[in-house]
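Troubleshooting entry. Yesterday's outputs looked truncated, so today I'm pasting the complete records for two proteins to confirm everything comes through intact. If either block looks cut off, that's the bug. Protein one:
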Amino acid sequence: MSYSGPPLDLNRLLQVLVKNGVDFVVIGGSAAGFLGASRLTEDADCVVNRERANLDRLATALRELHARLRVARMSDEEAQALPIVVDGLMLETTGSSTWTTNAGPFDVMSDLKDVRGTTVPYHELLSRSLVVQGEGFVVHVASVDDIIAAKTFANREKDREALPELLEIQARERSASAQSESAPRPVELTKHVDSQRSTADELDESREEREF
């Protein structure tokens, strides 16, 4: 799909989504970048909560970003001339959609796929997501496991090229998690001190009884 619109300004796009209260999880190359991948992405991809109220908020954000549909073999100027009403009903009936915005290309996904092509809905992605602090916003980012699974299933050239670095990030995360689980737990000094104090008190009481 050719693209003739503005370049991606990920910070601005995410700031507008967050400001309008949209519930979403960042996926794809943008998510990989937040997790430490060096490979650049030219568009933003998100899976959104499909509840109607959230789609209404998403529509508000899209209108603020002057969004227009991104259509194959159609220029940005031609797409802007399409008689499209961007509202919650339109987003509900459309499902996944691709947009050009004044902050760059933006893909709205209704779900993600795992390695077998099984649908992974928003709430499941959210349960495994990471919370990331950006420049003026806080967002949920899909886990590296979910990103790898989706790219493995998609199996496009750009996905295959991105996988080696993502697998390295996954290996580092698992190694760090294993080290954290195997680390010795700190001694509960407070309880130990209380135990010593109790024993000392008992000895004092016993001594007083003998003296009496």
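Protein two, checking that the full record survives here as well:
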Amino acid sequence: MAQPSTIAKELSSSHGDRLIRALIAEGKRFDPATFSETEVERVMGIGKQRSALVLRSGVKIPVALSYEQLEQKIYQPDFKNDGNVLDLRAVTGEAAKPSEAHASALEAPANTNQAPAPGDKMPDGTVFAGISPDTNKPVYVTPADASLTMTFNDAQKYAANLDAHGHRDWHVPTKAELNVLFNNRAAIGGFDISGSDSAGWYWSASSDFTWLAWEQRFSDGYQFYGDKDNRSAVRCVR
């Protein structure tokens, strides 16, 4: 475990009136917090290109900086854009997982001792929907439907071009994935369960015929082939 250098401690005592803003893991989310620099007990290394601020309260705030970089940023008043308020929110929380190797950690609640449940909001703002019967992998959905109903072909284009919550790999759910969304609709939230035509029906990406594709009514879960020119609701998944 790395400890602050003597110089760092001296600098800390001479610049202790500065405020630090950061994101602190609280259960399944990251919450912003502001605290005095004098509340920082030490800087510790927690892995390659990773470190953490340790507050006197015992809270550890992970940061996507090496120990040396974080120590300099905290204790050197001339580090880049340093000022009376040092904002570390850009390098804590989600950004504390800088490599693709940590992508799965981004999509799990902050409390890694507990597996996500349908309806859990992820740190990136998406919602965990369940496990895909097609891939046996987690499915994440946008928190709300697309703002407009659309045809089957337009729904596929919309999903392919969607750039949301830091991701661009969205798609319209398959017939089986759409049923997972239906089964967990109460926990996920935001669905039209009125059964109305067309907002109460949702497109899947499953198509077996030239003019027909599977839809699902979210009032009762009924699945049926619909004409691809019909306008139905869309909830994108990844």
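Both blocks look complete. Sanity check on protein two: The helical segments are 6-14, 67-75, 103-106, 152-161, 175-183, 185-188.
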